[in-house]
Amino acid sequence: MRIEQGQAGEFEEFVAARWSVLLHLARLLVGGDRHRAEDLAQESLVKLWFVWPKVSQDAPEAYVRKVMVRAAARSGRRRWWGERPVERLPEGAITGDVSADVAERSRLEAALAQLSPNQRAAVVLRYYQDLPEGQVAEALGCPVGTARSHASRGVARLRQILTDAIEPTR
Amino acid sequence: MDQMDPFERQLARLMRDTHEPVPFEPRHRERLHEGVRVRRRTRMVRRTVGSALAVVGVGIGLLLLPAGPTRVQPAEPHPRPATSPTSTDSAPTPGETPTAPPTSSATTSLANPGATTSDTPTAPATTGSSATATSTTGGNTGVTTPPATSSTPSDTTTAENLSQSTPSSITSSLTVSPGSGS
Protein backbone atom coordinates (compact mmCIF):
# COMPACT_ATOMS: atom_id res chain seq x y z
CA MET A 1 0.00 0.00 0.00
CA ARG A 2 1.42 3.33 -1.05
CA ILE A 3 1.31 6.18 1.44
CA GLU A 4 0.94 9.64 0.05
CA GLN A 5 3.04 12.57 1.15
CA GLY A 6 0.34 14.04 3.38
CA GLN A 7 -0.30 10.75 5.07
CA ALA A 8 3.41 10.26 5.61
CA GLY A 9 3.49 13.61 7.36
CA GLU A 10 0.59 12.60 9.58
CA PHE A 11 2.38 9.39 10.43
CA GLU A 12 5.53 11.26 11.38
CA GLU A 13 3.54 13.59 13.58
CA PHE A 14 1.82 10.73 15.31
CA VAL A 15 5.07 8.91 15.95
CA ALA A 16 6.80 12.02 17.24
CA ALA A 17 3.90 12.78 19.57
CA ARG A 18 3.45 9.27 20.95
CA TRP A 19 7.00 7.96 20.84
CA SER A 20 7.72 8.51 24.50
CA VAL A 21 4.54 6.83 25.69
CA LEU A 22 4.95 3.93 23.28
CA LEU A 23 8.54 3.43 24.31
CA HIS A 24 7.61 3.36 27.97
CA LEU A 25 4.83 0.89 27.25
CA ALA A 26 7.28 -1.27 25.34
CA ARG A 27 9.74 -1.06 28.19
CA LEU A 28 7.16 -2.24 30.69
CA LEU A 29 6.04 -5.00 28.34
CA VAL A 30 9.52 -6.43 27.96
CA GLY A 31 10.36 -6.10 31.63
CA GLY A 32 12.74 -3.18 31.50
CA ASP A 33 15.19 -4.02 28.73
CA ARG A 34 15.67 -0.69 27.00
CA HIS A 35 17.13 -2.06 23.77
CA ARG A 36 14.46 -4.67 23.38
CA ALA A 37 11.86 -2.03 24.13
CA GLU A 38 13.19 0.19 21.37
CA ASP A 39 13.23 -2.72 18.95
CA LEU A 40 9.67 -3.57 19.88
CA ALA A 41 8.46 0.00 19.42
CA GLN A 42 10.22 0.33 16.07
CA GLU A 43 8.90 -2.97 14.82
CA SER A 44 5.35 -2.05 15.79
CA LEU A 45 5.60 1.35 14.16
CA VAL A 46 6.92 -0.19 10.95
CA LYS A 47 3.84 -2.40 10.89
CA LEU A 48 1.70 0.63 11.56
CA TRP A 49 3.23 2.39 8.56
CA PHE A 50 1.88 -0.21 6.15
CA VAL A 51 -1.67 0.03 7.46
CA TRP A 52 -1.61 3.72 8.21
CA PRO A 53 -4.14 4.74 5.50
CA LYS A 54 -6.59 2.27 6.98
CA VAL A 55 -6.18 2.93 10.69
CA SER A 56 -5.12 6.56 10.81
CA GLN A 57 -8.67 7.81 11.11
CA ASP A 58 -9.74 5.25 13.70
CA ALA A 59 -7.34 4.35 16.48
CA PRO A 60 -3.71 4.08 15.44
CA GLU A 61 -2.49 3.88 19.01
CA ALA A 62 -4.76 0.94 19.78
CA TYR A 63 -3.37 -0.81 16.72
CA VAL A 64 0.23 -0.21 17.78
CA ARG A 65 -0.59 -1.34 21.30
CA LYS A 66 -2.07 -4.58 20.04
CA VAL A 67 0.89 -5.25 17.76
CA MET A 68 3.29 -4.44 20.56
CA VAL A 69 1.58 -6.65 23.13
CA ARG A 70 1.45 -9.63 20.80
CA ALA A 71 5.02 -9.15 19.62
CA ALA A 72 6.20 -8.87 23.22
CA ALA A 73 4.36 -12.06 24.17
CA ARG A 74 5.84 -13.79 21.14
CA SER A 75 9.37 -12.65 21.79
CA GLY A 76 9.01 -13.51 25.46
CA ARG A 77 8.27 -17.10 24.52
CA ARG A 78 11.46 -17.36 22.51
CA ARG A 79 14.07 -19.22 24.40
CA TRP A 80 17.08 -17.32 23.23
CA TRP A 81 16.21 -14.28 25.27
CA GLY A 82 17.30 -16.29 28.25
CA GLU A 83 14.54 -14.85 30.38
CA ARG A 84 13.55 -17.06 33.27
CA PRO A 85 12.02 -16.36 36.67
CA VAL A 86 14.33 -16.31 39.66
CA GLU A 87 13.70 -16.40 43.35
CA ARG A 88 15.69 -13.32 44.26
CA LEU A 89 15.60 -9.99 42.48
CA PRO A 90 18.66 -9.39 40.36
CA GLU A 91 20.89 -6.54 41.37
CA GLY A 92 20.64 -4.91 37.99
CA ALA A 93 23.11 -2.61 36.30
CA ILE A 94 22.56 0.30 38.62
CA THR A 95 25.81 1.41 40.13
CA GLY A 96 26.96 4.45 41.95
CA ASP A 97 24.73 7.31 43.04
CA VAL A 98 21.25 6.84 41.63
CA SER A 99 18.10 8.69 42.41
CA ALA A 100 15.17 7.14 44.20
CA ASP A 101 13.08 7.30 41.03
CA VAL A 102 15.52 5.27 39.04
CA ALA A 103 15.83 2.75 41.84
CA GLU A 104 12.07 2.49 42.06
CA ARG A 105 11.72 2.02 38.32
CA SER A 106 14.41 -0.59 38.30
CA ARG A 107 12.67 -2.48 41.04
CA LEU A 108 9.39 -2.35 39.19
CA GLU A 109 10.94 -3.49 35.93
CA ALA A 110 12.81 -6.29 37.62
CA ALA A 111 9.60 -7.45 39.25
CA LEU A 112 7.74 -7.27 35.94
CA ALA A 113 10.46 -9.31 34.31
CA GLN A 114 9.59 -12.19 36.58
CA LEU A 115 6.07 -12.47 35.24
CA SER A 116 5.11 -14.49 32.23
CA PRO A 117 4.70 -12.41 29.03
CA ASN A 118 0.92 -12.67 29.12
CA GLN A 119 0.68 -11.78 32.79
CA ARG A 120 3.00 -8.85 32.26
CA ALA A 121 1.01 -7.58 29.30
CA ALA A 122 -2.28 -7.95 31.16
CA VAL A 123 -0.97 -6.08 34.20
CA VAL A 124 0.58 -3.31 32.13
CA LEU A 125 -2.50 -2.79 30.00
CA ARG A 126 -4.75 -2.86 33.02
CA TYR A 127 -2.80 -0.64 35.39
CA TYR A 128 -0.62 1.52 33.16
CA GLN A 129 -2.90 1.95 30.19
CA ASP A 130 -5.99 1.81 32.38
CA LEU A 131 -7.86 -0.33 29.87
CA PRO A 132 -11.04 -2.21 30.71
CA GLU A 133 -10.89 -5.99 30.75
CA GLY A 134 -12.55 -6.30 27.36
CA GLN A 135 -9.87 -4.24 25.65
CA VAL A 136 -7.11 -6.06 27.50
CA ALA A 137 -8.53 -9.33 26.24
CA GLU A 138 -8.76 -7.98 22.72
CA ALA A 139 -5.17 -6.80 22.76
CA LEU A 140 -4.00 -10.13 24.13
CA GLY A 141 -6.17 -12.05 21.69
CA CYS A 142 -7.80 -14.18 24.37
CA PRO A 143 -11.16 -14.42 26.16
CA VAL A 144 -12.00 -11.89 28.84
CA GLY A 145 -11.84 -14.52 31.56
CA THR A 146 -8.34 -15.50 30.54
CA ALA A 147 -7.22 -11.88 30.46
CA ARG A 148 -8.71 -11.35 33.92
CA SER A 149 -6.90 -14.42 35.18
CA HIS A 150 -3.59 -13.23 33.72
CA ALA A 151 -4.02 -9.84 35.36
CA SER A 152 -4.99 -11.16 38.78
CA ARG A 153 -2.19 -13.71 38.87
CA GLY A 154 0.28 -11.12 37.68
CA VAL A 155 -0.79 -8.68 40.37
CA ALA A 156 -0.63 -11.37 43.02
CA ARG A 157 2.90 -12.20 41.96
CA LEU A 158 3.90 -8.54 41.90
CA ARG A 159 2.35 -8.05 45.30
CA GLN A 160 4.52 -10.81 46.60
CA ILE A 161 7.64 -9.36 45.01
CA LEU A 162 7.07 -5.66 45.55
CA THR A 163 5.39 -5.42 48.90
CA ASP A 164 8.61 -4.56 50.61
CA ALA A 165 9.59 -2.13 47.90
CA ILE A 166 6.29 -0.21 47.85
CA GLU A 167 5.55 -0.33 51.55
CA PRO A 168 8.95 -0.19 53.19
CA THR A 169 7.48 0.95 56.50
CA ARG A 170 5.79 -2.38 57.12
CA MET B 1 -10.86 -0.21 38.08
CA ASP B 2 -12.97 1.14 40.90
CA GLN B 3 -12.32 -1.72 43.25
CA MET B 4 -8.55 -1.31 43.34
CA ASP B 5 -6.88 -2.00 46.62
CA PRO B 6 -4.02 0.20 47.89
CA PHE B 7 -1.38 -2.02 46.38
CA GLU B 8 -3.00 -1.86 42.94
CA ARG B 9 -3.29 1.91 43.17
CA GLN B 10 0.35 2.18 44.09
CA LEU B 11 1.27 -0.16 41.29
CA ALA B 12 -0.59 1.99 38.78
CA ARG B 13 1.05 5.12 40.15
CA LEU B 14 4.46 3.51 40.03
CA MET B 15 3.99 2.52 36.41
CA ARG B 16 3.00 6.04 35.43
CA ASP B 17 5.60 7.81 37.52
CA THR B 18 8.43 5.82 36.08
CA HIS B 19 7.62 7.21 32.65
CA GLU B 20 10.41 9.51 31.58
CA PRO B 21 9.90 11.61 28.44
CA VAL B 22 12.07 10.48 25.55
CA PRO B 23 12.14 12.67 22.42
CA PHE B 24 11.79 11.14 18.99
CA GLU B 25 15.32 11.70 17.76
CA PRO B 26 16.59 11.71 14.18
CA ARG B 27 18.28 8.37 14.77
CA HIS B 28 14.87 6.92 15.66
CA ARG B 29 13.42 8.37 12.49
CA GLU B 30 16.24 7.00 10.40
CA ARG B 31 15.86 3.61 11.92
CA LEU B 32 12.13 3.67 11.36
CA HIS B 33 12.58 4.56 7.69
CA GLU B 34 15.17 1.87 7.30
CA GLY B 35 12.77 -0.64 8.86
CA VAL B 36 10.04 0.42 6.47
CA ARG B 37 12.38 0.02 3.49
CA VAL B 38 13.51 -3.42 4.62
CA ARG B 39 9.96 -4.56 5.23
CA ARG B 40 8.80 -3.25 1.89
CA ARG B 41 11.62 -5.07 0.17
CA THR B 42 10.82 -8.25 2.06
CA ARG B 43 7.18 -8.03 1.12
CA MET B 44 8.06 -7.47 -2.51
CA VAL B 45 10.44 -10.44 -2.56
CA ARG B 46 7.86 -12.59 -0.83
CA ARG B 47 5.19 -11.56 -3.29
CA THR B 48 7.49 -12.20 -6.26
CA VAL B 49 8.48 -15.61 -4.98
CA GLY B 50 4.86 -16.42 -4.28
CA SER B 51 3.82 -15.42 -7.78
CA ALA B 52 6.65 -17.41 -9.33
CA LEU B 53 5.72 -20.46 -7.29
CA ALA B 54 2.10 -20.08 -8.30
CA VAL B 55 3.03 -19.84 -11.98
CA VAL B 56 5.29 -22.89 -11.71
CA GLY B 57 2.56 -24.80 -9.92
CA VAL B 58 -0.02 -23.94 -12.53
CA GLY B 59 2.42 -24.87 -15.30
CA ILE B 60 3.17 -28.23 -13.76
CA GLY B 61 -0.52 -28.80 -13.27
CA LEU B 62 -1.26 -28.01 -16.90
CA LEU B 63 1.53 -30.31 -18.04
CA LEU B 64 0.30 -33.18 -15.97
CA LEU B 65 -3.39 -32.66 -16.55
CA PRO B 66 -3.72 -33.87 -20.21
CA ALA B 67 -1.67 -36.98 -19.52
CA GLY B 68 -4.19 -38.24 -17.05
CA PRO B 69 -7.42 -39.31 -18.76
CA THR B 70 -6.03 -40.42 -22.17
CA ARG B 71 -6.04 -44.10 -21.24
CA VAL B 72 -9.46 -45.56 -21.75
CA GLN B 73 -9.78 -48.92 -20.16
CA PRO B 74 -12.60 -51.35 -20.96
CA ALA B 75 -15.22 -51.63 -18.40
CA GLU B 76 -15.59 -54.69 -16.29
CA PRO B 77 -17.67 -57.33 -18.11
CA HIS B 78 -21.25 -57.52 -17.11
CA PRO B 79 -22.26 -60.53 -15.07
CA ARG B 80 -23.52 -63.21 -17.30
CA PRO B 81 -26.70 -65.20 -16.78
CA ALA B 82 -26.40 -68.58 -15.17
CA THR B 83 -27.79 -70.40 -18.21
CA SER B 84 -26.91 -69.04 -21.61
CA PRO B 85 -29.53 -69.05 -24.33
CA THR B 86 -27.27 -70.97 -26.73
CA SER B 87 -27.09 -73.98 -24.52
CA THR B 88 -30.83 -74.11 -24.04
CA ASP B 89 -31.44 -73.68 -27.75
CA SER B 90 -29.05 -76.35 -28.82
CA ALA B 91 -29.98 -78.70 -26.06
CA PRO B 92 -33.26 -80.14 -27.35
CA THR B 93 -31.67 -81.83 -30.38
CA PRO B 94 -31.46 -85.28 -29.05
CA GLY B 95 -29.38 -86.78 -31.79
CA GLU B 96 -26.41 -84.61 -31.34
CA THR B 97 -25.77 -85.13 -27.69
CA PRO B 98 -22.22 -86.46 -27.96
CA THR B 99 -20.96 -83.77 -30.30
CA ALA B 100 -23.00 -81.29 -28.41
CA PRO B 101 -22.90 -77.73 -29.09
CA PRO B 102 -19.71 -75.84 -29.77
CA THR B 103 -19.74 -74.61 -26.27
CA SER B 104 -18.71 -77.98 -24.96
CA SER B 105 -15.98 -78.30 -27.54
CA ALA B 106 -14.75 -74.91 -26.61
CA THR B 107 -14.57 -75.75 -22.97
CA THR B 108 -12.73 -78.95 -23.60
CA SER B 109 -10.31 -77.21 -25.85
CA LEU B 110 -9.62 -74.81 -23.04
CA ALA B 111 -9.15 -77.60 -20.59
CA ASN B 112 -6.65 -79.46 -22.79
CA PRO B 113 -6.17 -77.71 -26.09
CA GLY B 114 -4.77 -80.60 -28.08
CA ALA B 115 -7.39 -83.15 -27.22
CA THR B 116 -10.54 -82.08 -29.05
CA THR B 117 -9.28 -80.92 -32.38
CA SER B 118 -11.32 -83.67 -33.96
CA ASP B 119 -14.53 -82.22 -32.59
CA THR B 120 -14.13 -78.81 -34.12
CA PRO B 121 -15.10 -79.78 -37.67
CA THR B 122 -18.53 -80.74 -36.41
CA ALA B 123 -18.99 -77.41 -34.82
CA PRO B 124 -19.59 -75.25 -37.92
CA ALA B 125 -23.07 -76.66 -38.30
CA THR B 126 -24.17 -74.89 -35.21
CA THR B 127 -21.54 -72.21 -34.71
CA GLY B 128 -23.45 -69.77 -36.82
CA SER B 129 -26.02 -69.26 -34.18
CA SER B 130 -23.89 -69.98 -31.18
CA ALA B 131 -21.20 -67.49 -32.11
CA THR B 132 -23.61 -64.65 -32.43
CA ALA B 133 -25.39 -65.67 -29.30
CA THR B 134 -22.28 -65.79 -27.20
CA SER B 135 -21.07 -62.49 -28.52
CA THR B 136 -24.30 -60.84 -27.51
CA THR B 137 -24.64 -62.49 -24.17
CA GLY B 138 -21.06 -62.00 -23.24
CA GLY B 139 -21.27 -58.28 -23.42
CA ASN B 140 -17.55 -58.08 -23.85
CA THR B 141 -17.31 -54.68 -25.40
CA GLY B 142 -13.56 -54.71 -25.69
CA VAL B 143 -13.54 -57.37 -28.43
CA THR B 144 -15.33 -56.55 -31.64
CA THR B 145 -16.47 -59.78 -33.20
CA PRO B 146 -17.61 -59.87 -36.77
CA PRO B 147 -20.88 -61.63 -37.45
CA ALA B 148 -19.08 -64.95 -37.38
CA THR B 149 -19.35 -66.39 -40.82
CA SER B 150 -16.24 -68.46 -40.62
CA SER B 151 -15.62 -71.03 -37.97
CA THR B 152 -12.07 -70.25 -36.93
CA PRO B 153 -12.49 -66.72 -35.55
CA SER B 154 -15.73 -67.68 -33.97
CA ASP B 155 -13.98 -70.44 -32.11
CA THR B 156 -11.51 -68.10 -30.65
CA THR B 157 -14.14 -65.65 -29.59
CA THR B 158 -16.27 -68.28 -28.03
CA ALA B 159 -13.24 -69.65 -26.31
CA GLU B 160 -12.53 -66.27 -24.79
CA ASN B 161 -16.07 -65.70 -23.82
CA LEU B 162 -16.61 -69.13 -22.50
CA SER B 163 -13.48 -69.07 -20.48
CA GLN B 164 -15.29 -66.65 -18.24
CA SER B 165 -18.44 -68.71 -18.18
CA THR B 166 -17.33 -72.21 -17.69
CA PRO B 167 -19.92 -72.84 -14.99
CA SER B 168 -22.71 -71.99 -17.46
CA SER B 169 -21.43 -74.54 -19.99
CA ILE B 170 -21.31 -77.09 -17.24
CA THR B 171 -24.86 -76.38 -16.29
CA SER B 172 -25.86 -76.54 -19.94
CA SER B 173 -24.31 -79.99 -20.28
CA LEU B 174 -26.11 -80.99 -17.15
CA THR B 175 -29.40 -79.79 -18.52
CA VAL B 176 -28.75 -81.48 -21.84
CA SER B 177 -28.11 -84.95 -20.53
CA PRO B 178 -31.54 -85.58 -19.02
CA GLY B 179 -33.19 -84.52 -22.29
CA SER B 180 -31.05 -86.91 -24.27
CA GLY B 181 -31.85 -89.75 -21.92
CA SER B 182 -35.58 -89.45 -22.30
Q: Helix and strand succession of chain B?
A: HHHHHHH
The end-to-end distance of chain B, rounded to whole angstroms, is 111 Å
Report the strand count of chain A: 0
Low-confidence stretches of chain B: 103-182
What is the rounded Rg of chain B?
A: 43 Å
| Count of separate DSSP helical elements of chain A | 7
Could you describe the 3D structure shown?
The complex is a heterodimer of chains A (170) and B (182). Chain A has 170 residues and is mainly α. Helices cover 72% and strands 0% of the residues of chain A. Chain A has one domain: Up-down Bundle (Butyryl-CoA Dehydrogenase, subunit A, domain 3), CATH 1.20.140. Chain A is globular and about 50 Å long. Helix content of chain B is 61%, strand content 0%. Chain B contains seven helices and no strands. Chains A and B meet through α1, α2, α4, α5 and α7 of A and α1 and α2 of B.
Give the key terms.
heterodimer; A: 170 residues; mainly alpha; Butyryl-CoA Dehydrogenase, subunit A, domain 3; 7 helices; B: 182 residues; 0% strand; disordered C terminus
Task: Outline the fold blueprint.
The complex is a heterodimer of chains A (170) and B (182).
Chain A: H1 5-29, H2 34-55, H3 60-77, H4 100-113, H5 117-128, H6 133-140, H7 144-166
Helix pairs in contact in A: 1-2, 1-3, 2-3, 4-7, 5-6, 5-7, 6-7
Chain B: H1 6-17, H2 26-64, H3 85-90, H4 102-111, H5 124-138, H6 151-163, H7 166-181
Helix pairs in contact in B: 4-6, 5-6
Task: Give a brief description.
The complex is a heterodimer of chains A (170) and B (182). Chain A is an all-alpha fold and 170 residues long.
